[in-house]
Design brief:
Deoxyuridine 5'-Triphosphate Nucleotidohydrolase, Chain A; 10-stranded antiparallel sheet; 25 strands; mainly beta; globular; 38% strand; 6-stranded antiparallel sheet
Protein backbone atom coordinates (compact mmCIF):
# COMPACT_ATOMS: atom_id res chain seq x y z
CA UNK A 1 0.00 0.00 0.00
CA UNK A 2 1.32 3.44 -0.94
CA UNK A 3 1.41 6.21 1.68
CA UNK A 4 -1.27 8.88 1.31
CA UNK A 5 -0.31 11.61 -1.12
CA UNK A 6 0.99 12.28 -4.63
CA UNK A 7 3.23 9.47 -5.80
CA UNK A 8 6.82 10.60 -6.51
CA UNK A 9 9.06 9.60 -9.41
CA UNK A 10 10.46 6.54 -7.64
CA UNK A 11 6.93 5.20 -7.08
CA UNK A 12 6.07 5.81 -10.73
CA UNK A 13 9.14 3.82 -11.75
CA UNK A 14 8.06 1.00 -9.45
CA UNK A 15 4.55 1.00 -10.95
CA UNK A 16 6.12 0.70 -14.41
CA UNK A 17 8.20 -2.27 -13.23
CA UNK A 18 5.03 -3.85 -11.79
CA UNK A 19 3.13 -3.11 -15.06
CA UNK A 20 0.54 -1.00 -13.29
CA UNK A 21 1.71 1.57 -15.84
CA UNK A 22 2.18 -0.24 -19.15
CA UNK A 23 4.39 1.27 -21.86
CA UNK A 24 4.21 0.33 -25.53
CA UNK A 25 7.70 1.84 -25.93
CA UNK A 26 10.54 2.24 -23.38
CA UNK A 27 10.51 5.22 -21.03
CA UNK A 28 11.66 8.34 -22.82
CA UNK A 29 14.21 10.88 -21.57
CA UNK A 30 12.66 13.32 -19.08
CA UNK A 31 9.34 11.44 -19.30
CA UNK A 32 9.18 10.97 -15.53
CA UNK A 33 9.24 14.17 -13.49
CA UNK A 34 9.36 14.46 -9.67
CA UNK A 35 5.59 14.07 -9.28
CA UNK A 36 4.23 13.46 -12.77
CA UNK A 37 4.73 11.43 -15.91
CA UNK A 38 4.37 12.46 -19.54
CA UNK A 39 2.02 10.43 -21.73
CA UNK A 40 2.99 10.10 -25.39
CA UNK A 41 1.08 9.88 -28.65
CA UNK A 42 0.76 6.44 -30.16
CA UNK A 43 0.59 5.32 -33.77
CA UNK A 44 -2.85 6.65 -34.72
CA UNK A 45 -4.90 9.79 -34.26
CA UNK A 46 -8.51 10.24 -35.38
CA UNK A 47 -10.14 13.42 -36.63
CA UNK A 48 -13.56 13.43 -34.95
CA UNK A 49 -16.80 15.29 -35.51
CA UNK A 50 -17.03 16.46 -31.93
CA UNK A 51 -15.65 15.95 -28.45
CA UNK A 52 -17.20 13.08 -26.52
CA UNK A 53 -17.13 10.96 -23.39
CA UNK A 54 -17.80 7.23 -23.85
CA UNK A 55 -19.95 6.89 -20.72
CA UNK A 56 -20.67 3.75 -18.70
CA UNK A 57 -20.42 0.48 -20.59
CA UNK A 58 -18.70 1.89 -23.68
CA UNK A 59 -15.09 2.03 -24.75
CA UNK A 60 -13.39 4.89 -26.55
CA UNK A 61 -12.93 2.57 -29.54
CA UNK A 62 -16.70 1.97 -29.60
CA UNK A 63 -17.43 5.68 -29.76
CA UNK A 64 -14.71 6.35 -32.34
CA UNK A 65 -16.52 4.07 -34.75
CA UNK A 66 -19.43 6.51 -34.61
CA UNK A 67 -17.68 9.89 -34.54
CA UNK A 68 -14.34 9.46 -36.35
CA UNK A 69 -14.09 11.21 -39.71
CA UNK A 70 -10.76 9.71 -40.69
CA UNK A 71 -7.71 7.98 -39.28
CA UNK A 72 -4.21 9.51 -39.47
CA UNK A 73 -0.90 7.65 -39.18
CA UNK A 74 1.51 9.40 -36.80
CA UNK A 75 4.61 7.30 -37.41
CA UNK A 76 6.03 9.86 -39.86
CA UNK A 77 4.34 12.91 -38.35
CA UNK A 78 1.09 14.70 -39.09
CA UNK A 79 -0.27 18.25 -38.87
CA UNK A 80 -3.20 18.88 -36.53
CA UNK A 81 -5.20 21.88 -37.75
CA UNK A 82 -6.60 24.69 -35.63
CA UNK A 83 -10.29 24.47 -34.84
CA UNK A 84 -10.42 20.70 -35.35
CA UNK A 85 -10.83 18.01 -32.71
CA UNK A 86 -8.70 14.86 -32.66
CA UNK A 87 -8.50 11.78 -30.46
CA UNK A 88 -5.17 9.95 -30.29
CA UNK A 89 -4.28 6.61 -28.80
CA UNK A 90 -1.43 6.87 -26.28
CA UNK A 91 1.63 4.69 -25.78
CA UNK A 92 0.76 4.36 -22.07
CA UNK A 93 -2.05 2.32 -20.54
CA UNK A 94 -2.95 1.68 -16.90
CA UNK A 95 -3.75 -1.16 -14.54
CA UNK A 96 -4.15 0.90 -11.39
CA UNK A 97 -4.00 -0.80 -7.99
CA UNK A 98 -6.70 -0.30 -5.39
CA UNK A 99 -6.75 3.16 -3.88
CA UNK A 100 -4.57 4.81 -6.54
CA UNK A 101 -6.24 7.25 -8.90
CA UNK A 102 -4.83 9.51 -11.59
CA UNK A 103 -5.41 12.99 -12.95
CA UNK A 104 -4.19 14.53 -16.19
CA UNK A 105 -3.30 17.98 -17.49
CA UNK A 106 -1.64 19.43 -20.58
CA UNK A 107 2.12 19.85 -20.31
CA UNK A 108 3.33 23.41 -19.76
CA UNK A 109 4.62 23.68 -23.32
CA UNK A 110 1.28 22.43 -24.67
CA UNK A 111 -0.74 24.96 -22.72
CA UNK A 112 1.54 27.82 -23.71
CA UNK A 113 0.75 27.07 -27.36
CA UNK A 114 -3.00 27.06 -26.68
CA UNK A 115 -3.32 23.39 -27.55
CA UNK A 116 -6.27 22.07 -25.56
CA UNK A 117 -5.90 18.46 -24.43
CA UNK A 118 -7.90 16.08 -22.22
CA UNK A 119 -7.27 12.45 -21.34
CA UNK A 120 -10.13 10.00 -21.97
CA UNK A 121 -10.51 6.46 -20.65
CA UNK A 122 -12.92 3.67 -21.46
CA UNK A 123 -16.30 4.07 -19.73
CA UNK A 124 -15.34 7.56 -18.59
CA UNK A 125 -17.97 10.05 -17.45
CA UNK A 126 -15.46 12.89 -16.99
CA UNK A 127 -12.24 14.05 -18.61
CA UNK A 128 -8.76 13.95 -17.06
CA UNK A 129 -9.87 11.86 -14.05
CA UNK A 130 -8.97 8.17 -13.84
CA UNK A 131 -10.55 6.07 -11.11
CA UNK A 132 -8.80 3.44 -8.94
CA UNK A 133 -8.67 -0.07 -10.43
CA UNK A 134 -8.95 1.27 -13.99
CA UNK A 135 -7.48 -1.27 -16.38
CA UNK A 136 -7.31 -0.16 -19.97
CA UNK A 137 -5.93 2.15 -22.64
CA UNK A 138 -5.53 5.91 -22.50
CA UNK A 139 -6.59 8.31 -25.23
CA UNK A 140 -5.97 12.02 -25.64
CA UNK A 141 -8.39 14.55 -27.06
CA UNK A 142 -6.42 17.29 -28.84
CA UNK A 143 -7.70 20.60 -30.18
CA UNK A 144 -5.19 23.23 -31.35
CA UNK A 145 -6.85 26.59 -30.74
CA UNK A 146 -4.33 29.08 -32.14
CA UNK A 147 -1.43 27.45 -34.03
CA UNK A 148 -1.45 24.33 -36.24
CA UNK A 149 0.97 21.81 -34.75
CA UNK A 150 3.11 18.98 -36.09
CA UNK A 151 3.12 15.84 -33.92
CA UNK A 152 4.31 12.27 -34.27
CA UNK A 153 4.40 8.98 -32.40
CA UNK A 154 6.14 9.67 -29.10
CA UNK A 155 5.25 13.36 -28.87
CA UNK A 156 4.24 14.22 -25.29
CA UNK A 157 1.38 16.71 -25.01
CA UNK A 158 -0.05 15.78 -21.61
CA UNK A 159 1.03 14.40 -18.25
CA UNK A 160 -0.57 12.36 -15.51
CA UNK A 161 -0.20 12.50 -11.75
CA UNK A 162 -1.05 9.55 -9.50
CA UNK A 163 -2.21 9.88 -5.92
CA UNK A 164 -3.21 7.62 -3.08
CA UNK A 165 -6.09 8.96 -0.98
CA UNK A 166 -6.94 12.59 -0.26
CA UNK A 167 -3.81 14.73 -0.45
CA UNK A 168 -5.15 18.28 -0.76
CA UNK A 169 -4.26 20.80 1.92
CA UNK A 170 -7.09 22.71 3.57
CA UNK A 171 -6.93 26.46 4.01
CA UNK A 172 -5.72 26.26 7.62
CA UNK A 173 -2.85 23.95 6.64
CA UNK A 174 -2.06 26.17 3.65
CA UNK A 175 -1.80 29.19 5.94
CA UNK A 176 0.72 27.35 8.11
CA UNK A 177 2.82 26.29 5.12
CA UNK A 178 2.61 29.81 3.67
CA UNK A 179 3.96 31.27 6.89
CA UNK A 180 6.79 28.74 6.97
CA UNK A 181 7.71 28.49 3.27
CA UNK A 182 6.30 31.63 1.63
CA UNK A 183 4.48 29.73 -1.13
CA UNK A 184 3.51 33.07 -2.64
CA UNK A 185 5.87 35.99 -2.09
CA UNK A 186 3.50 38.83 -1.23
CA UNK A 187 2.81 41.14 1.71
CA UNK A 188 -0.80 40.00 1.84
CA UNK A 189 -1.92 36.57 0.65
CA UNK A 190 -5.52 35.53 0.12
CA UNK A 191 -6.12 31.89 1.05
CA UNK A 192 -9.53 30.52 0.14
CA UNK A 193 -9.75 27.14 -1.55
CA UNK A 194 -6.12 27.66 -2.48
CA UNK A 195 -3.54 30.46 -2.54
CA UNK A 196 -4.50 33.46 -4.66
CA UNK A 197 -2.25 34.48 -7.55
CA UNK A 198 -2.39 37.86 -9.27
CA UNK A 199 -1.28 39.04 -12.71
CA UNK A 200 1.72 41.31 -13.32
CA UNK A 201 0.97 44.13 -15.76
CA UNK A 202 3.62 46.55 -14.51
CA UNK A 203 6.04 45.36 -17.19
CA UNK A 204 9.26 43.34 -17.26
CA UNK A 205 12.63 44.73 -18.33
CA UNK A 206 13.57 48.11 -19.70
CA UNK A 207 10.85 48.04 -22.36
CA UNK A 208 8.05 47.22 -19.92
CA UNK A 209 7.06 43.92 -21.56
CA UNK A 210 3.68 42.86 -20.14
CA UNK A 211 2.97 39.77 -22.18
CA UNK A 212 2.34 38.24 -25.57
CA UNK A 213 -0.77 37.98 -27.73
CA UNK A 214 -0.87 35.18 -30.27
CA UNK A 215 -1.04 36.06 -33.94
CA UNK A 216 -3.54 34.38 -36.21
CA UNK A 217 -2.85 32.52 -39.46
CA UNK A 218 0.75 31.65 -38.62
CA UNK A 219 2.90 28.76 -39.74
CA UNK A 220 2.86 25.49 -37.87
CA UNK A 221 4.78 24.59 -34.72
CA UNK A 222 6.63 21.28 -34.52
CA UNK A 223 5.93 20.16 -30.95
CA UNK A 224 9.30 18.37 -30.74
CA UNK A 225 11.44 21.24 -32.04
CA UNK A 226 13.13 23.22 -29.28
CA UNK A 227 14.07 26.91 -29.71
CA UNK A 228 13.31 26.67 -33.41
CA UNK A 229 10.97 29.61 -34.03
CA UNK A 230 11.23 33.40 -34.00
CA UNK A 231 8.91 34.94 -31.44
CA UNK A 232 7.61 37.72 -33.70
CA UNK A 233 6.48 35.25 -36.36
CA UNK A 234 3.87 33.96 -33.92
CA UNK A 235 3.36 36.59 -31.20
CA UNK A 236 2.67 40.29 -30.75
CA UNK A 237 4.50 41.82 -27.79
CA UNK A 238 2.46 43.86 -25.31
CA UNK A 239 4.02 46.70 -23.34
CA UNK A 240 3.08 48.92 -20.45
CA UNK A 241 2.82 52.29 -22.14
CA UNK A 242 2.53 55.55 -20.22
CA UNK A 243 2.40 53.69 -16.90
CA UNK A 244 -1.09 52.28 -17.49
CA UNK A 245 -1.03 48.92 -15.72
CA UNK A 246 -4.07 47.36 -17.33
CA UNK A 247 -4.83 45.17 -20.31
CA UNK A 248 -8.05 44.69 -22.25
CA UNK A 249 -8.51 41.04 -23.19
CA UNK A 250 -10.10 40.66 -26.61
CA UNK A 251 -12.64 37.83 -26.91
CA UNK A 252 -11.18 34.77 -28.60
CA UNK A 253 -7.58 35.98 -28.31
CA UNK A 254 -4.87 34.03 -26.50
CA UNK A 255 -2.36 35.68 -24.15
CA UNK A 256 0.77 34.71 -22.25
CA UNK A 257 1.16 36.70 -19.02
CA UNK A 258 2.97 36.19 -15.71
CA UNK A 259 1.99 36.12 -12.07
CA UNK A 260 2.55 39.19 -9.92
CA UNK A 261 4.01 37.09 -7.17
CA UNK A 262 6.95 34.72 -7.13
CA UNK A 263 5.63 31.24 -6.32
CA UNK A 264 7.26 28.10 -5.03
CA UNK A 265 6.45 24.47 -4.35
CA UNK A 266 8.36 22.96 -1.39
CA UNK A 267 9.92 19.50 -1.79
CA UNK A 268 7.17 17.70 0.17
CA UNK A 269 4.31 19.15 -1.87
CA UNK A 270 2.96 19.44 -5.38
CA UNK A 271 0.62 22.12 -6.68
CA UNK A 272 -1.97 22.77 -9.34
CA UNK A 273 -3.40 26.03 -10.70
CA UNK A 274 -7.18 26.13 -10.84
CA UNK A 275 -8.00 26.68 -14.53
CA UNK A 276 -10.89 29.10 -14.12
CA UNK A 277 -12.58 30.94 -11.31
CA UNK A 278 -15.94 32.49 -12.28
CA UNK A 279 -15.63 34.91 -9.36
CA UNK A 280 -12.68 36.77 -10.88
CA UNK A 281 -13.87 37.40 -14.43
CA UNK A 282 -14.96 36.01 -17.76
CA UNK A 283 -11.71 34.40 -18.79
CA UNK A 284 -9.84 31.15 -18.40
CA UNK A 285 -6.34 31.03 -16.94
CA UNK A 286 -3.72 28.30 -17.03
CA UNK A 287 -4.52 25.27 -19.15
CA UNK A 288 -1.45 23.41 -17.88
CA UNK A 289 -1.79 23.16 -14.16
CA UNK A 290 0.84 20.87 -12.58
CA UNK A 291 3.74 22.26 -10.55
CA UNK A 292 6.25 19.63 -9.46
CA UNK A 293 8.05 19.64 -6.08
CA UNK A 294 10.91 22.13 -6.11
CA UNK A 295 9.37 24.51 -8.65
CA UNK A 296 10.66 27.95 -7.70
CA UNK A 297 12.08 26.65 -4.40
CA UNK A 298 15.50 27.56 -3.02
CA UNK A 299 16.36 23.91 -2.37
CA UNK A 300 16.22 23.37 -6.14
CA UNK A 301 18.41 26.39 -6.80
CA UNK A 302 15.56 28.65 -7.88
CA UNK A 303 14.31 32.04 -6.74
CA UNK A 304 11.81 34.66 -7.83
CA UNK A 305 10.05 32.21 -10.13
CA UNK A 306 6.75 33.38 -11.60
CA UNK A 307 3.83 31.28 -12.71
CA UNK A 308 3.21 31.81 -16.42
CA UNK A 309 -0.46 32.37 -17.14
CA UNK A 310 -2.14 31.13 -20.30
CA UNK A 311 -5.16 33.39 -20.62
CA UNK A 312 -8.11 33.35 -22.99
CA UNK A 313 -11.03 35.74 -22.69
CA UNK A 314 -14.48 34.27 -23.14
CA UNK A 315 -17.42 36.07 -24.70
CA UNK A 316 -16.83 39.72 -23.82
CA UNK A 317 -13.85 42.09 -23.63
CA UNK A 318 -12.45 42.15 -20.11
CA UNK A 319 -10.12 44.64 -18.39
CA UNK A 320 -7.34 43.08 -16.32
CA UNK A 321 -5.59 45.33 -13.83
CA UNK A 322 -2.13 44.93 -12.34
CA UNK A 323 -2.22 42.64 -9.31
CA UNK A 324 -5.76 41.40 -9.98
CA UNK A 325 -6.37 37.84 -8.76
CA UNK A 326 -6.59 35.50 -11.73
CA UNK A 327 -6.34 32.05 -10.20
CA UNK A 328 -5.50 29.98 -7.16
CA UNK A 329 -2.80 27.45 -6.42
CA UNK A 330 -4.01 24.26 -4.77
CA UNK A 331 -1.31 22.34 -2.89
CA UNK A 332 -1.20 18.60 -2.19
CA UNK A 333 1.08 16.48 -0.03
CA UNK A 334 3.59 14.14 -1.59
CA UNK A 335 3.40 10.52 -0.42
CA UNK A 336 7.15 10.87 0.04
CA UNK A 337 9.81 13.29 -1.13
CA UNK A 338 10.87 12.65 -4.75
CA UNK A 339 14.36 11.40 -5.46
CA UNK A 340 15.18 14.66 -7.21
CA UNK A 341 13.43 18.01 -7.38
CA UNK A 342 12.07 19.86 -10.40
CA UNK A 343 14.80 21.13 -12.68
CA UNK A 344 17.71 19.63 -10.72
CA UNK A 345 18.62 16.24 -12.24
CA UNK A 346 17.11 16.65 -15.72
CA UNK A 347 17.12 20.39 -16.13
CA UNK A 348 14.06 22.40 -17.05
CA UNK A 349 12.94 25.01 -19.52
CA UNK A 350 10.85 26.82 -16.91
CA UNK A 351 12.66 26.76 -13.55
CA UNK A 352 13.45 30.31 -12.46
CA UNK A 353 11.21 31.76 -15.20
CA UNK A 354 9.63 35.19 -15.28
CA UNK A 355 7.54 35.94 -18.38
CA UNK A 356 8.40 33.12 -20.77
CA UNK A 357 6.94 31.56 -23.90
CA UNK A 358 7.04 27.84 -24.55
CA UNK A 359 10.37 26.11 -25.19
CA UNK A 360 9.68 26.10 -28.95
CA UNK A 361 10.64 29.78 -29.32
CA UNK A 362 14.07 31.35 -29.42
CA UNK A 363 15.00 33.38 -26.36
CA UNK A 364 14.39 37.05 -27.03
Amino acid sequence: MHPVGILPSQSLEKLIAERAIVLAQPVGPKQIQPASMDVRLGVKVYRVRASFLPGPGQTVADRLRDVALHEIDLTHGAVLETGAVYVAELLESLALPEGVLAAANPKSSTGRLDVFTRVITDRATRFDQIDPLYHGPLFLEISPRTFPVLVRTGTALAQIRLRNGEARLGDAELAQVQEREKLVDAAYVSIQNGVAVGVDLSGFGANGLVGYRAKRFTGLVDMDRIAGYDVLDFWETLHNRHGRSELILDPGQFYILASKEAVCVPPDFAAEMTPFDPLVGEFRVHYAGFFDPGFGHASAGASNTRAVLEVRSRDVPFILEDGQIVGRLVYERMAERPRSLYGVAQGSNYQGQSLKLSKHFKTV
